What does this fold into?
Amino acid sequence: MTIVPFCELTEGQEADFFAVFVKKESKTTSQGKPFYSITIRDADRTVTFPVWNDSPFTPLIEKLEDGSFIKVRGVYQVNAKYGAQVNLIQMRLIEDRDRQDGFDEKMFVAKSQFDPEETFADILAILKQTMGESDPLYTLCETIFTAVSARSIGLPTSIGNFSSLPNRSIDQPAFS
It folds into this structure.
Protein backbone atom coordinates (compact mmCIF):
# COMPACT_ATOMS: atom_id res chain seq x y z
CA MET A 1 0.00 0.00 0.00
CA THR A 2 1.24 3.50 -0.80
CA ILE A 3 2.43 5.68 2.07
CA VAL A 4 0.29 8.82 2.45
CA PRO A 5 1.18 11.73 4.74
CA PHE A 6 -1.12 11.53 7.78
CA CYS A 7 -2.21 15.16 7.34
CA GLU A 8 -3.37 14.44 3.76
CA LEU A 9 -5.73 11.58 4.57
CA THR A 10 -9.34 12.26 3.64
CA GLU A 11 -12.38 10.96 5.45
CA GLY A 12 -12.88 7.25 4.84
CA GLN A 13 -9.45 6.79 3.27
CA GLU A 14 -7.47 3.67 4.17
CA ALA A 15 -3.73 4.10 3.92
CA ASP A 16 -0.34 3.43 5.40
CA PHE A 17 1.16 6.45 7.14
CA PHE A 18 3.85 7.44 9.58
CA ALA A 19 3.06 9.20 12.84
CA VAL A 20 4.55 10.02 16.18
CA PHE A 21 2.89 8.54 19.25
CA VAL A 22 2.20 11.54 21.48
CA LYS A 23 0.52 10.05 24.54
CA LYS A 24 -1.80 7.45 25.96
CA GLU A 25 -4.30 7.75 28.78
CA SER A 26 -5.98 4.81 30.45
CA LYS A 27 -9.72 5.53 30.72
CA THR A 28 -13.02 3.81 31.38
CA THR A 29 -16.40 4.33 29.73
CA SER A 30 -19.45 5.18 31.82
CA GLN A 31 -20.36 1.48 31.51
CA GLY A 32 -16.97 0.49 32.98
CA LYS A 33 -15.30 -0.71 29.76
CA PRO A 34 -11.54 0.11 29.85
CA PHE A 35 -9.76 1.71 26.89
CA TYR A 36 -6.76 3.81 25.99
CA SER A 37 -7.19 7.29 24.61
CA ILE A 38 -4.18 7.65 22.34
CA THR A 39 -2.90 10.68 20.49
CA ILE A 40 -0.83 10.48 17.30
CA ARG A 41 0.33 13.25 15.00
CA ASP A 42 2.51 14.48 12.20
CA ALA A 43 3.58 18.08 11.66
CA ASP A 44 0.12 19.22 10.53
CA ARG A 45 -2.49 16.89 12.06
CA THR A 46 -3.11 15.59 15.58
CA VAL A 47 -5.77 13.00 16.32
CA THR A 48 -6.87 11.50 19.65
CA PHE A 49 -8.97 8.34 19.52
CA PRO A 50 -9.90 5.33 21.65
CA VAL A 51 -8.35 1.88 21.48
CA TRP A 52 -10.25 -0.71 23.51
CA ASN A 53 -8.26 -2.76 26.00
CA ASP A 54 -9.25 -6.01 24.26
CA SER A 55 -7.79 -4.72 20.96
CA PRO A 56 -4.89 -6.61 19.38
CA PHE A 57 -2.98 -3.29 19.51
CA THR A 58 -3.14 -2.99 23.32
CA PRO A 59 0.16 -4.84 24.00
CA LEU A 60 2.04 -2.48 21.66
CA ILE A 61 0.29 0.61 23.03
CA GLU A 62 1.22 -0.41 26.57
CA LYS A 63 4.90 -0.57 25.53
CA LEU A 64 4.97 2.64 23.44
CA GLU A 65 6.69 5.66 24.92
CA ASP A 66 5.65 9.22 24.18
CA GLY A 67 7.62 10.35 21.14
CA SER A 68 7.83 6.89 19.54
CA PHE A 69 7.60 6.87 15.76
CA ILE A 70 5.07 4.42 14.36
CA LYS A 71 3.86 3.10 11.04
CA VAL A 72 0.11 2.70 10.83
CA ARG A 73 -2.30 1.17 8.38
CA GLY A 74 -5.67 2.61 9.19
CA VAL A 75 -8.81 4.35 8.07
CA TYR A 76 -9.13 8.06 8.82
CA GLN A 77 -12.66 8.88 9.92
CA VAL A 78 -14.49 11.91 11.21
CA ASN A 79 -17.19 11.06 13.73
CA ALA A 80 -19.97 13.64 14.19
CA LYS A 81 -19.83 13.25 17.97
CA TYR A 82 -16.14 12.49 18.66
CA GLY A 83 -14.32 14.19 15.78
CA ALA A 84 -11.36 12.78 13.85
CA GLN A 85 -10.38 9.20 14.62
CA VAL A 86 -8.28 6.41 13.17
CA ASN A 87 -9.58 2.88 12.81
CA LEU A 88 -6.39 0.85 13.25
CA ILE A 89 -5.72 -2.07 10.93
CA GLN A 90 -1.99 -2.50 11.59
CA MET A 91 0.50 -0.63 13.75
CA ARG A 92 4.16 -1.09 14.61
CA LEU A 93 7.28 0.83 15.59
CA ILE A 94 9.29 2.39 12.78
CA GLU A 95 12.11 0.23 11.44
CA ASP A 96 15.22 1.18 9.45
CA ARG A 97 13.62 -0.16 6.25
CA ASP A 98 10.89 2.50 6.55
CA ARG A 99 13.40 5.14 5.42
CA GLN A 100 13.20 3.57 1.95
CA ASP A 101 9.47 4.36 2.02
CA GLY A 102 10.10 8.00 2.91
CA PHE A 103 10.18 8.02 6.71
CA ASP A 104 12.10 11.00 8.09
CA GLU A 105 11.94 12.43 11.61
CA LYS A 106 11.68 15.91 10.08
CA MET A 107 8.17 15.00 8.90
CA PHE A 108 6.98 15.58 12.46
CA VAL A 109 8.48 19.00 13.07
CA ALA A 110 5.91 21.77 13.13
CA LYS A 111 6.89 24.48 10.70
CA SER A 112 6.47 28.21 10.99
CA GLN A 113 4.06 29.93 8.63
CA PHE A 114 6.84 32.45 7.98
CA ASP A 115 9.84 31.90 5.74
CA PRO A 116 12.87 31.64 8.07
CA GLU A 117 15.25 33.45 5.71
CA GLU A 118 12.82 36.36 5.27
CA THR A 119 12.35 36.53 9.04
CA PHE A 120 16.12 36.63 9.52
CA ALA A 121 16.41 39.47 6.99
CA ASP A 122 13.57 41.34 8.74
CA ILE A 123 15.35 41.04 12.11
CA LEU A 124 18.56 42.43 10.65
CA ALA A 125 16.63 45.29 9.02
CA ILE A 126 15.00 46.17 12.35
CA LEU A 127 18.38 46.12 14.08
CA LYS A 128 19.89 48.31 11.35
CA GLN A 129 16.99 50.78 11.52
CA THR A 130 17.00 50.89 15.33
CA MET A 131 20.74 51.02 15.95
CA GLY A 132 22.29 52.18 12.72
CA GLU A 133 25.08 50.43 10.83
CA SER A 134 27.80 52.42 12.58
CA ASP A 135 26.77 51.24 16.06
CA PRO A 136 29.24 48.61 17.40
CA LEU A 137 26.32 46.77 19.01
CA TYR A 138 24.68 46.42 15.57
CA THR A 139 27.93 45.00 14.19
CA LEU A 140 28.10 42.51 17.07
CA CYS A 141 24.45 41.47 16.62
CA GLU A 142 24.82 41.11 12.86
CA THR A 143 27.95 38.98 13.30
CA ILE A 144 26.26 36.70 15.82
CA PHE A 145 23.01 36.39 13.84
CA THR A 146 24.87 35.66 10.62
CA ALA A 147 27.09 33.03 12.26
CA VAL A 148 24.19 31.30 13.98
CA SER A 149 21.66 31.55 11.14
CA ALA A 150 23.42 29.05 8.90
CA ARG A 151 22.99 26.40 11.59
CA SER A 152 19.63 27.46 13.00
CA ILE A 153 17.44 28.31 10.00
CA GLY A 154 15.12 25.37 9.49
CA LEU A 155 15.48 23.95 12.99
CA PRO A 156 12.29 23.43 15.00
CA THR A 157 11.13 26.32 17.12
CA SER A 158 9.24 24.20 19.64
CA ILE A 159 11.21 21.98 21.97
CA GLY A 160 8.16 19.80 22.55
CA ASN A 161 7.94 18.67 18.94
CA PHE A 162 11.38 17.39 18.05
CA SER A 163 14.28 15.34 19.25
CA SER A 164 17.47 14.45 17.42
CA LEU A 165 17.21 11.00 18.97
CA PRO A 166 14.98 8.51 17.13
CA ASN A 167 11.82 7.52 19.02
CA ARG A 168 12.32 10.18 21.71
CA SER A 169 10.68 13.46 22.48
CA ILE A 170 12.96 16.26 23.63
CA ASP A 171 11.89 15.95 27.26
CA GLN A 172 12.58 12.22 27.48
CA PRO A 173 15.95 11.11 28.83
CA ALA A 174 18.15 9.50 26.20
CA PHE A 175 19.09 6.73 28.64
CA SER A 176 16.65 5.26 31.09
Remarks:
- The CA atoms of residues 150 and 176 lie 33 Å apart.
- The radius of gyration is 21 Å.
